[in-house]
Amino acid sequence: MRALILLGLVGFAAQLVDGSLGMAYGVTSTTLLLAIGTNAAAASATVHLAEIGTTLASGLSHWRFGNIDWKVVGKIGVPGAVGAFAGATFLSSLSTETAAPVMSLILLTLGAYILIRFTAYGLPRGNLGKPLRKRFLTPLGLLAGFVDATGGGGWGPVGTPAILASGRLAPRKVIGSIDASEFLVAIAASVGFFVGIGSENINFAWVAVLLLGGVIAAPIAAWLVRHIPPRILGSAVGGLIILTNVRTLLRSEWIDAPGNVQAIAYVAIAVLWAAAIAYSVREYRRDKAHESVEAVEDETRRTTTEEETASA
């Protein structure tokens, strides 16, 4: 019972992050399932089954708040589903001993990308309003869908930063569109896992509590996306994913590191993680202060212009 409650809370927290950042439900949930000993294919299958419901709820919530560009959803969602089905069948063919560290490596890479991307650069905003082409979204969807299924998450970490980096879509619409299109990816991946491993290795009670936690969090996250600082959240989530997957790798048969080496690694990661969060907080505050100064200067210029026009 305690494990189910924990999974429900993880589902809630993961969807809260995913719905407001456009990533991390899959990597966060799968990371936890791997940490408690679930085999890789079953962990990814469990998360993707839960995501069918959470992505539907998240998509509807983002739609209500006007956070979705449906053209982007169509252009990236369909190739994403194709990539997810291929990734699910590929992962299902690997042995458990091989799949677990492979998945942890993928998740670790995604976690490092999230941490570095959001800590160092924040959110780009150039080229806003320019169209996103199929020649960009189709291969992006194929890659993100494949990584998502094989890594137990990755649709958001691959898709969201790539579209944000283009600067052509408002951040809230990037997040809403990625969350909505993930519904197609979750269905395709789930079908792929049923074909590859069947249903006997999937714990449907875990699916249910992950789904429940995610559905509860979805409307809250869709509202928070307008208010929460994504830079700080990205640094926090990236560090958590790195720490957990380094733990899995150090304890795997590939490395089997001694206890003192593991302890040193955890302390080093924790220090870097805390520094990244502190830097993100500082940069966020500096950006807000800069925006406030610019707003005051713009208002001053506007007032001066109006007074000069009136006196003339």
TrEMBL record:
Keywords per UniProt: Cell membrane, Membrane, Transmembrane, Transmembrane helix
Q: Which residue ranges traverse the bilayer?
A: 32-60, 72-92, 98-116, 180-198, 204-225, 262-281
Please report a single Pfam family linked to this protein.
TauE
Q: What is its main location?
A: membrane
Q: How does it sit in the membrane?
A: Multi-pass membrane protein
Question: Which stretches are annotated as coiled coil?
Answer: none
InterPro entries assigned to the protein according to its UniProt record, in alphabetical order: TM_pro_TauE-like, TSUP/Inactive_protease-like
Q: Segment Disordered: which positions? A: 292-312
Q: Where in the cell is it found?
A: Cell membrane; Membrane
User: Which ranges are annotated Basic and acidic residues under compositional bias?
Assistant: 292-305
| Family per similarity comment | Belongs to the 4-toluene sulfonate uptake permease (TSUP) (TC 2.A.102) family.
List, alphabetically, the PANTHER family matched: MEMBRANE TRANSPORTER PROTEIN MJ0441-RELATED, MEMBRANE TRANSPORTER PROTEIN YTNM-RELATED
Q: What is this protein called?
A: Probable membrane transporter protein
